Please model this.
Amino acid sequence: MIRNAQVNDVPAIHDLINEYAEQGLMLFRSLADLYESLRDFVVCQEDSQIVGCCGLQIYWRNLAEIKSLAVRPDCRGRGIGRGLIESQIQQARQLKLPRLFVLTLEKEFFERVGFVQIPMDSLPHKVWSDCVRCPKQDNCDEIAMQMDL
Ligand SMILES: CC(C)(COP(=O)(O)OP(=O)(O)OC[C@H]1O[C@@H](n2cnc3c(N)ncnc32)[C@H](O)[C@@H]1OP(=O)(O)O)[C@@H](O)C(=O)NCCC(=O)NCCS
Model:
């Protein structure tokens, strides 16, 4: 079941994201940060467990980012990541956002769900605010991708 995140989900979202962040695959998120941006998140719940999460951060009329997408390692490859993205795409369409972008190492996954690579420098500086918290800030290996809605 994919649904909007609730306050009780935050510890599980935190664990999911930060386990991947330890491996250098995602950016760390603090509990405080997650509570503040809770309304940006959808989660996938199976039985009573949170097995995936995905955020959508809006910066401006035409600028919104898919963030903190993570699926529990033992649940990958079952369509949960696609389901989370599709849920956020649906919400983005309802909000009349014209496009979404993502900064990612997972090029093939995002291609599968409809994103295309764009030049990093086509995004405004505003989106780099997270880079100050990134341990790889001087050696960024992510690519930028976009989906027109
Ligand atoms: C990336 C991630 C969210 C994908 O979630 P998932 O639930 O395993 O993906 P899905 O099962 O929904 O896969 C959707 C499609 O993408 C493909 N796919 C998934 N991961 C892929 C990969 N690493 N390389 C190539 N294709 C991939 C699947 O085969 C599937 O294709 P199909 O629907 O055409 O058959 C998950 O692997 C993950 O949490 N990775 C670690 C954290 C991370 O890197 N997050 C991204 C931050 S931007």
